């Protein structure tokens, strides 16, 4: 059975590795979103997996997850590519503006920006894609998070990435709460 996957932040690192892994199953259709759709890493994958004459298995769609207008444009493009909906929405794009900054030295404006990125911007990102997610019979939303966002493990990570850990913890709560509203499993 084929599955449709959308992966944000897929031009490098973990996102690119996820796309590459998903494409190993030839029944998967993958939509790789990125701010850099011309990235050589993705172009190479397109050439490798999209066989002329067959339906494409990998599509690259430009998406800056912080731009609500661009999220809507990307959702419109994806709707044409996958009229049956998105089975798995994988939120991989992320930021960590102050990874090694001491608590007393934090730039609070950057802290606020990071918190906004993992909360308000996630809502703005998901809203236009929600009809496509709800259209699927699978309906899974997955955002990559971090052990440092765990309240249980917070004491072990007491001296690293304060804004990142707080923002990721807020993302976890947001996804759990929103998942209940729309009856979408999130993890």
* CATH fold assignment: Rossmann fold
Radius of gyration: 17 Å
The class by helix and strand makeup works out as: alpha/beta
- Give the strand tally: 5
Rough outline: globular
Q: Superfamily at the CATH H level?
A: NAD(P)-binding Rossmann-like Domain
Q: What order do the SSEs take from the amino end to the carboxyl end, as H and E?
A: EHEHEHEHHEH
Family: Belongs to the short-chain dehydrogenases/reductases (SDR) family.
Pfam families: adh_short
GO cellular component, one term: cytoplasm
Organism: Candolleomyces aberdarensis
Walk me through what this model shows.
This is NAD(P)-binding protein. The two termini are 22 Å apart. The relative contact order is 0.14. This protein is an alpha/beta fold and 187 residues long. It is built from 6 helices and 5 strands. The mean pLDDT is 93. A 5-stranded parallel beta sheet has the order 3-2-1-4-5, sandwiched between helices. The protein has a single domain, classed as NAD(P)-binding Rossmann-like Domain (Rossmann fold), CATH 3.40.50.720.
